[in-house]
Design goal:
homodimer; 310 residues; alpha/beta; 5 strands
């Protein structure tokens, strides 16, 4: 378990989770209360590094403790520990889900990571309960799973990708009746509660960017021919729906931020801060899990003697 | 396509694939000829960096071009390019398959990587044709797939993991009759030929370590309590079977190194050299694929104008 003695923000934020900093307390969405995303500054830095250089260094500092914790989680699973971690990344177009996977998940050993980018459901998937394809993509014991809602909303012709999207898109596009959407919130909460009961630590991050930052990022994609493939003209139409999406997100965050599986709003206008914050959230959760290397179940001296004889 | 003008070994080995170095020609197993692994020095450095420091630097230098090529492969897939890459890692216990994934695949964007560690087949899988579970784990268009034969032989109670293992273990342990094993070689070759016809570049690496290096690595695992979980006492018994395994590997390499899907023998006693060599092989293949960013299929100026109006 991380040391919890010091309550103040540690001086070495980012280096260990035992420094008293609890970013998750600062970013956590209090469930059940009305949620106002406009009141969340997407350039806010509630804790941790204050500028880009310090942010990059702090994230780099997290690489070793994160990889160490991941190895311990994996090692423990070989001795029957069923625990695993699921990172859910959500956010508007250009909010940086892909960049987060590249820079944050890139700090981990790829062997133990299972990245799943949800695309629009196939006709076959649409015939099944909406959580079914989620279940199939869950991390196994010892793994770090990542759900990246990958496609821009516009390309999702009908229902979306991750559970929250199945309520979001359905709401904004009026694809499902309100009662059905309410029923889905409850279903998501029950599902996530069952997951946590089954050893899954669920970390849900909403990458929060401003309307202006989104325009800047879209314009940058237009400036670079090697980024044109990421651009979809319908992204522009979707921006016009931003108030509706924002409302839908607010409701989903409010309804589905639960004690067992809270949502975190990550200020994401600054990419380096976003990367540090998500890395830090992972560190805090993994430190709390405190997975242990299994003890040898064989005679070490005997094994050494036999090897030396070969 | 990489420049092929210079035939000599480039001075900046490792920085681009256009430097005239063709490591794959040097490491490639000539199929159909008798194969003698004992004649391959597992400490050999047929090209590239000559010492650890230069090796680490050369591998780091490959990170940017590899990530760039991977992004281009992925981007091309969004425009219908079906091509993808499959890296197969094989080798005796402690040969460094896991370390290769960590250090080489760690250079790539995790989003486009699909690592599959094959475990012993389930009873259900055993009832199906032996290539079935391989097909299910193949990379999708634009992806880099990695097959890591993950479990030590000893833990594979019956048939093994990857196709080659289904012949290896079967041969060493006499689990399948010789005729059945011969039939499987042919089936593997036909399967891999179909894969390459379907846009899959297959890169098969045999990580070659010496008997002494293997003992040293096993002893090191015993020295460190945080490595005991990787140790299995039956690994010691398996070492006694090394001549049989080596023969089985030789036959498999000889029978399954084909023009469309050759095997490469990677000298793997030096971890830094192994990592550089596998990275370099990936670079050479990806450079040859030369994936391109798709051109914009929309009016860039019009999109810019509309965005600026929002």
């Amino acid at each position: 378990m991380p040391k919890k003695g010091s309550k103040g923000l540690g001086k070495k934020e980012g280096s260990t989770a035992g420094d008293g900093l609890a970013l998750r307390k600062l970013l956590r969405v209090p469930g059940g209360k009305p949620m106002d995303l406009a009141a969340h500054d997407s350039r806010e830095m509630p804790a941790g590094p204050r500028d880009r250089q310090a942010g990059l260094a702090a994230t780099t500092d997290l690489a070793t403790p994160l990889a160490d914790l991941q190895e311990r989680l994996w090692a423990a699973s070989t001795a029957g520990d069923r625990r695993r971690v699921l990172l859910v990344l959500q956010g508007m177009d250009t909010s940086g889900k892909g960049g987060t996977v590249k820079h944050v998940i890139g700090l981990f050993n790829p062997s133990g990571c299972r990245v799943h980018a949800f695309k629009a459901p196939t006709p076959r998937e649409l015939r099944h309960p909406f959580l079914r394809r989620i279940k199939k993509a869950l991390p196994q014991a010892g793994e770090l799973g990542i759900f990246d809602r990958s496609l821009p909303h516009a390309r999702l012709r009908s229902r979306g990708g991750t559970p929250i999207e199945d309520v979001l898109i359905a709401r904004v596009r009026a694809l499902a009746p309100a009662a059905e959407i309410e029923r889905r919130y409850d279903e998501i909460n029950r599902f996530e509660k069952a997951l946590t009961g089954d050893g899954v630590t669920v970390i849900k991050c909403f990458l929060h960017i401003s309307y202006d930052e989104q325009r800047d990022r879209l314009l940058k994609r237009l400036d670079r021919p090697d980024k044109h493939w990421k651009f979809n003209v319908s992204d522009i139409d979707e921006r016009a729906l931003r108030p509706a999406y924002q409302q839908a997100y607010e409701l989903a965050l409010e309804r589905c931020s639960t004690p067992h599986a809270p949502w975190y709003v990550v200020p994401a206008d600054r990419k380096w801060y976003r990367n540090w914050a998500v890395s830090r959230l992972l560190l805090e959760h993994l430190s709390e899990l405190d997975p242990r290397y299994p003890k040898a179940d064989f005679d070490v001296e005997e094994a050494r003697r036999r090897l030396l004889e070969q």
